[in-house]
4-diphosphocytidyl-2-C-methyl-D-erythritol kinase
Amino acid sequence: MTAHLSLGWPAPAKLNLFLHVNGRRADGYHELQTLFQFIDYCDYLDFKLMDGAALKLHSNLGGVVADNDNLILRAAKSLQQATGYPGGAEIWLDKRLPMGGGLGGGSSDAATTLVALNALWDTGLSNAELAEIGLKLGADVPVFINGLAAFAEGVGERLQPVFPPQSWYLVLVPDVHVSTQAVFQDPALPRATPKLDIDTLMNSSWSNDCQKLVAEKYPQVAKALAWLVEYAPSRMTGTGACVFGEFEQAQQAHAALAKLPPDLQGFVAQGMNSSPLLARLAQL
Ligand SMILES: C[C@@](CO)(OP(=O)(O)O)[C@H](O)COP(=O)(O)OP(=O)(O)OC[C@H]1O[C@@H](n2ccc(N)nc2=O)[C@H](O)[C@@H]1O
Ligand SMILES: Nc1ncnc2c1ncn2[C@@H]1O[C@H](COP(=O)(O)OP(=O)(O)O)[C@@H](O)[C@H]1O
């Protein structure tokens, strides 16, 4: 086989436009109701198909991300195992998304790897089969594979497409790492929000059940929210630490960004109900 290069596969970030914790299951995982929307702020992956089963990852973060725990290598290996495909790949990651901030970058990288290699290796799995493999890598992987904004239930794997406004967001990235596991283990986390039907939820005002706890524990998150809320309705995504303010016009989000004090970091992005990954796949 001649080495074949395929460039520019996006792995977008997601926002949880709302996140409700409805209960704890016997296995310790939490039942959620959440609304996922993508934003046009992405990591990018390139793939070179190789003879032989070896998988190799390079990244602009050096060795930090290129070890065997990386979700990209784990995703590629899972696809080889599920399909018996004998070939391998060399993968380049251009990491732009902050890690561990509730933007889902690791899960998105895994999903892009599964979708891209399934197409490039011609292994022919359906999206449902890829999502089943992906769910073992992270609760958020299936929504990135499906590529449609979704109302999610269960631990995030039962998905229904929805069409929230594709607002402009100013996303702030507090300089602190919040552990998802620690948030879910905290006795102070409210975990009894009643389950509501999708129509009621889509038409209610949106909130995040993890936000109060995380803002109390991490002053950097509280500070980012306190600044942002002066400009727009604002919330935390996932289990934090990132927070976002919601604007109708790009120009309003950029105007707020221009006033950001030097000790806060942020970026502007637009909400997308269809992932840029789907658009890239359609180019093949
Ligand atoms: C809650 C969300 C919302 O998007 O938060 P973010 O990670 O994006 O902030 C995600 O579903 C998270 O997904 P992900 O980050 O893949 O979580 P995992 O690695 O599967 O789980 C990390 C740990 O969090 C806890 N956990 C996670 C998800 C869940 N529904 N209930 C849990 O109790 C478990 O203790 C688990 O060991
Ligand atoms: N390709 C990857 N990109 C980012 N993080 C990764 C990757 N592979 C594994 N990880 C691990 O997953 C953790 C969660 O990353 P990420 O998905 O960015 O955050 P979150 O789940 O809060 O949205 C990171 O702290 C890192 O240890």
